[in-house]
């Protein structure tokens, strides 16, 4: 779903203590009853999930999550079984708008919704001028949003046809509503509006403003209310979590609206705004400008989680916004308790129901062969098994450079082991590998080709490659087949192997 000044007092001090209670931990660490010290149980993950991705949105269908974000020029979906492993997700570019249309450029804050057995992709776009941003919707009748074709249903607007972004859907009772952020040609203030819908692509009545930026914590950078997200508690009470202030400010944060019991969503007086933010920056966690969030359940349905974007540096509105996730709970009055932004330097427990793996210790591993290595700056082959993502292997480029597809590196893990998959860390910057062929064997001469696997274009983060069946081997050989740029000499930061837990 989607979408400089440091105002700690505005977005961190104006609160009641109870609104920032610590969030309970997930299920306990698994107990490994074996005495096997060759593996480490991997039950945690690290934020951020990706090296970029503003305005994150997640929807779950059966056992699969579909994630999207503001890419800008196209609509992209990442498909995964585990949200904590978003870096390993399969990527689909599902829609590129035609040129010279009112919706050809600046595609913002996309959201996926499944309504009446069909998929709808809502997004804001313009023709290159922000003043012309309006909301649009695509339809897809396939079983999943990464299959079939997306058909443009058109612009979705009320009768005023004013500037509009960040559209989302509320289904309440037997009725459906569109909620969005709007203003005067993109100029502040931005308000949040709601209007009735007759179908997923048609607004059928006048809009009603349900919040405007009135508090100081909603006015950092500019007076803005945007990114509305519907949240319904276990008792069925309706909340809207929205983002306040300019996204470029450190004070960008989350506010909360609640619909009174039995209230009419189209009556502005039936909505109550919390007078303080419910989630805001936390310098000690290196989280600045957290906002434009979404929600999802853990795979087993037992836990509630939120996803949001944030920056990791202060006073830099141009810094990259990255997606973070963390668990939340509920206050005794039924309102959400988001707690404080978790420290990105500390690992978090995976969402309940996600697969846990046993990562093999690399002690005793050696490099049994390689095509080439770059001596400048010690870009040597052994770097891929030193447990340090900041040291990297790059194939030779300074003298007699090697070229695709003549690259490989072979690892000897010391003895035959049962393996369910591989762990890959791409290097930072350029020379990332797009396609990687994997071979395994027991004598460093005869090989079984396991196939060619796609890697994501993300810096340093773990990517998991799950094998279709358990393999037993002593050696594995990685063969880069293609890259993400024109550099003919690829590199890797770290490689590893795992077996499944349980």
Automatic annotation (TrEMBL):
Any GO BP: carbohydrate metabolic process
Stretches assigned to the F5/8 type C domain: 333-497
Protein name (Swiss-Prot/TrEMBL): Alpha-N-arabinofuranosidase
Xref: SUPFAM superfamilies: Arabinanase/levansucrase/invertase, Galactose-binding domain-like
Family: Belongs to the glycosyl hydrolase 43 family.
Gene3D superfamilies documented for this protein: Galactose-binding domain-like, Glycosyl hydrolase domain, family 43
UniProt entry keywords in alphabetical sequence: Glycosidase, Hydrolase, Signal
Domain of life (superkingdom): Bacteria
Annotated site location: Important for catalytic activity, responsible for pKa modulation of the active site Glu and correct orientation of both the proton donor and substrate: 166
GO molecular function: hydrolase activity, hydrolyzing O-glycosyl compounds
Keyword Hydrolase annotated: yes
Signal peptide bounds: none
Organism per entry: Sphingobacterium athyrii
Catalytic residues (positions): 55 (proton acceptor), 226 (proton donor)
